[in-house]
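lol forgot to send this yesterday, sorry. struct tokens for the thing we talked abt
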């Protein structure tokens, strides 16, 4: 276990409540083996951190991109606060090195587990918010999660769904929209699988599958984009 003082120096923040910072790294699996441990799991901090992160993201978008619509904000927020993005930020900060894990979780590479890391990152946001203030939590998120990533996502319309991106691309290049054809629908009513194909100018491109027609269309659009761009 690394010294948390070193971590504080790394992020340039000093916590008044040392136990609160330590609590950020307590995974519930650790408590199964250490039932008398003096701290709870980080789950309640993660719950709060999720809400604080949502507010930070919304405020940032509202202030920096006033020209975008509410729908754009929703799509952008979903693309930046997804588990993979949070886990990547956590890895860059080496949060996994500080985690309290069970021996089993440790053996199963829990220190690199995307869900555990994402939850830890959100718990850290909550701890900064509680112990210091909202402004420091806001600055922390901008520095370690957004950086240039969020602006790149917006500039290149990467927050748009694959269908929306493909339609923009084909309208700009061919002056027409893609055609989606349902090829197959199979499986019982409660576990339907749809297969959809995309064609552009009568040329067939990607085929996608999903649990709904919309999901299959998005998958097909994604594969088409990979071929075309």
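and heres what i got for the seq, position by position
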């Amino acid at each position: 276990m690394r010294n948390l003082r070193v971590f504080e120096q790394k992020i340039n923040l000093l916590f008044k409540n040392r136990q609160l910072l330590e609590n950020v790294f307590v995974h519930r699996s650790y408590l199964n083996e250490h039932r008398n441990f003096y701290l709870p799991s980080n789950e309640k901090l993660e719950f709060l951190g999720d809400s604080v992160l949502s507010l930070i993201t919304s405020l940032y978008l509202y202030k920096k991109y006033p020209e975008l619509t509410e729908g754009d904000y929703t799509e952008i927020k979903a693309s930046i606060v997804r588990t993979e993005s949070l886990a990547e930020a956590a890895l860059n900060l080496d949060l996994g090195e500080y985690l309290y894990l069970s021996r089993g979780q440790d053996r199963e590479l829990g220190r690199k587990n995307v869900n555990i890391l994402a939850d830890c990152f959100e718990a850290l946001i909550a701890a900064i918010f509680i112990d210091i203030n909202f402004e420091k939590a806001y600055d922390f998120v901008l520095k370690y999660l957004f950086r240039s990533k969020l602006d790149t996502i917006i500039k290149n319309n990467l927050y748009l769904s694959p269908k929306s991106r493909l339609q923009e691309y084909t309208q700009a290049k061919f002056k027409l929209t893609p055609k989606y054809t349902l090829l197959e629908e199979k499986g019982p009513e409660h576990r339907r699988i749809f297969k959809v194909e995309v064609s552009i100018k009568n040329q067939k491109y990607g085929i996608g599958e999903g649990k709904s027609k919309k999901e299959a269309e998005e998958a097909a659009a994604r594969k088409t984009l990979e071929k075309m761009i």
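The CA atoms of residues 147 and 223 lie 29 Å apart. anyway ping me if u want another try
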